[in-house]
Design goal:
This protein has about 120 residues and is an all-beta fold. The protein contains no helices and 12 strands. The strands form 3 sheets. A 6-stranded mixed sheet has the order 2-12-9-4-5-6, with no helix packed on it. A 4-stranded antiparallel sheet has the order 1-3-8-7, with no helix packed on it. A two-stranded antiparallel ribbon has the order 10-11. Strand 4 and strand 5 form a beta hairpin.
Length: about 120
């Protein structure tokens, strides 16, 4: 059973950068489209970016031009490079593999990103 572990979050000032990682254990996600999601306090979890098994990418409008999603299938790891961070990016960030309206894997614990001066 695949377990997902997110890491790389932290406290950063507005305009700063962070690189998040999503590592899989107990299996592989190399053949699946993967996504980064986030959940801010009091809000529902939302999509941030997707990457197909072949490297095709999709970003929500708020992430375009600032975030870059990538993956290393050999390492069973996915990344999210976040630049020009804004306070509204503050959230817990998660990774998973979307499958229609559901997800292939259980949710990990996420990694907290806080953007504040």
């Amino acid at each position: 059973q695949v377990q997902l572990v997110e890491s790389g979050g932290g406290l950063v000032q507005p305009g700063g950068s962070l690189r998040l990682s999503c590592a899989a254990s107990g299996g592989t996600f190399s053949s699946y489209t993967m996504g980064w999601y986030r959940q801010a306090p009091g809000k529902e979890r939302e999509l941030v970016a997707l990457i197909t098994s072949g490297g095709g990418t999709y970003y929500v409008d708020s992430a375009k031009g600032r975030f870059t999603i990538s993956r290393d299938n050999a390492k069973n790891t996915m990344y999210l490079q976040m630049n020009s961070l804004k306070p509204e990016d503050t959230a817990v960030y998660y990774c998973n593999a979307p499958l229609g309206g559901v997800y292939r894997f259980g949710w990990g614990r996420g990694t907290q990103v806080t953007v504040s001066s």
